[in-house]
Structure formats: structure tokens, C-alpha cells
Amino acid sequence: MIRLIDISLELGSFALRSINLEIEDGQYFTILGPTGAGKTRLLEIIAGLQVPDSGEIWIGDKQVNELPPERRHVGFMYQDYLLFPHLSVRKNIAFGLRGQSPGETGSRIADLSGLLKIEDLLNRNVADLSGGEQQRVALARALAPRPRLLLLDEPLSALDPQNRRAVRRELNAIHHQLAMTTIHVTHDFEEALVLSDRIAVINHGEIMQVGAPEDVFRRPTSPFVASFVGVENLYRGEIVREEKGELLGSNSFNAIFQSGPLRLLVVAEYEGPANAAIRPEEITIATEPSHSSALNSIYGTLVDVEARGPLFQLKFDAAVPIVAVLTRQSFASLQLEIGSKAYLSFKASAVHVF
After folding, report:
1. What pLDDT shows up at residue 244?
2. How many C-beta atoms lie closer than 10 Å to residue 292's C-beta?
3. pLDDT value at position 97?
4. Which of 104, 159, 169, 339 lies 20 to 30 Å from 257, alpha-carbon distance?
5. Strand duo 255-259 + 262-266: pairing
């Protein structure tokens, strides 16, 4: 287990504040946050490249605050890879194996090059490789000394979309094969969702939320986290209960969320001020009133359409702004255009209140 206990660090105007994290053995753990949030600083503290002002760093059953980087058994891969451009791929990987016999070094390079599918690159100069190839070489070098913990600093950020998807699949496969504890930092929540067993969201040097990817994605605990993981519909208001009327006898909701003209049926355990978040993909769009089980239905006017790959993002004015997404086929079949009226429907359980 990796444990960070009350880790703090001040560097000029930036500070990490009382960071507490626990990462289980064999877990793929992602630290997710915007640029400048403190993600790389945390990795450097774990690796021993940065000394915290206070707090404890535990790797397994040993506190490692006083250990130098080379004695922490940590593999570190920076986003710009830091490969030696004047050396071959083989010699770059071998750099982490200094002190081993030629036979041991050769065997380890053969194992890693097979695992990462770079056998044909071993005698090439790294300066002649593509970004995806360099990424695999950097990962091989980080894995070469058999570290107990692998730290990845934005490992996919320099790759084009096609290579990014391919390397993401490889990272996932390698992790499952090696079962190595891995800490991966990124600003890309899709990357975090695909790879992670657990996620910590960080902003301005503070941990905002820790949980399983689905929990962070579907049930954010703050407006910042909601916005960062792609919740386009976020409203501030209050939760009220009614003893009679429309709430009576229904088991699918138990409260009403109100924000100005917006009134939503929700599932909530408390009353009072709250935020409500609705993911765009939870919303069904129809040009006629819906007879589905979705209890919330809002009538709005389409004011903006933005193509996002295979999807269209649609923004409606329904007394409040509300965003939904459609596939290209669904968008075409509904024959929507700017100024079109539509019904936006979603279940009470699709409204996350916090």
C-alpha cells in the first residue's frame, strides 16, 4: 500500500495542502486535475525528487521520507519521456539496469521489448522514432529495474488521438499482466475513466474527491469536480419536500429541487441549499410529449448546436440553459435546427444532488 499522510509543500505562490491518499497494492490509481493543480509535484514527492515541508510517505510498511530516490524502488516516466537522444533504444532501456550482468540485462531487455512490442526498434536511435514509439521505450526504461511502484506523468499527452487510444489499451493490458501498483496523473477525465481502479481529483493543491471512476463521474461532490468531469448542466438551488400532492405515493422520487424557474423531481436525503447536476447523455430529446418513465420533462428552444466527433452537443433555452447530446443519426431523424422546440426528459435518479 502507498500512503500519503498530511503531505504539505509550499513553493512560492503554489502549495500542496494536507494531502492524504491511500493506494492499494496492484491498483491503477489516477490523479486527475487541471494544469498547475499539483499533480506532478505529488509524483515527485513520492519518488523522492521533491521534499515535502511536512507529512509522511509510506511505500508498503516502510516510511520513505529519508530514503533517496534510488532506494524507493519507483519507476518514473515524465510526459516528455527524457530519453537519451544519442543512444539506441537498447541502451536507453539498459540505462536503468546498471550493475546487472550482461546476461541479466539482455534477458530483461528481451522481456520488456516483447511485452511492449518494440523488438524491431532495439538498435534504432530514439531520435528517429515516432511519439508512440518513444512512449513505449520510455515505459520500458521505467519498468526495467522491476520497480515496486510505477509513476506516470501525463504519459499520453504528447500523442495524437490514434496513438493515444492504442497506447491506452497497451497500458491497460500491461497493468493487468504485471499487476504493478501504478499512479498516473492526467488532465483528461476520459483517460482516467478508461484506465483507473480509483481516481483522486485535485485542484489548487487540494484533493477534492477520491473514489471509483463511476462515482466521481456520476456523483461529483463539488461544483468544480462536476464541471471538470463534463457535467454541462449544473444548477444552484434548494431541495424541498412536499407531504401532499405530486410527491404522494411515488417511490421513484422523494423531493423537489428548485432553482429559479427550474423545478425538478429528485431523489434526496436532505432539505436545504444544494447543487443539482445532470449529465447531457442522461437527457432524452423528443419533438412530442414523452410517455416514458422519465418524470422530469422540460420544454425548450434549441439555441446552439456543436459537432463533437460522432455526437452533436445541443444547447437549449428552457428558462435555464440545458445541454444534451445526440448521435448524428438521432439528430438527423429529429430534424432539429436552431429555433426548434423540443421536450427534454430525464429520470429523477439522473439528477445528482449534493
Report:
1. 43
2. 11
3. 87
4. 339
5. antiparallel
Check residue 251 and give its pLDDT: 56
First to last CA, the chain: 31
Domains of the chain: 2-226 (3.40.50.300), 231-353 (2.40.50.100)
Q: Can you list the residues of the chain whose pLDDT is less than 70?
A: 242-252
| DSSP 3-state of 183 | strand
User: Are 276 and 259 a contacting pair, CB within 8 Å?
Assistant: yes
Burial class (CB in 10 A: 0-12, 13-18, 19+), 85: exposed
C-alpha distances in Å from residue 72, one per residue of 5, 64, 107, 112, 252: 17, 7, 24, 21, 52
Alpha-carbon torsion angle 181, 112, 127, 81, nearest 10: 10
Strand partners, 353: 276
Alpha helices in 116-228 (DSSP H): 131-143, 161-178, 189-195, 213-218, 223-228
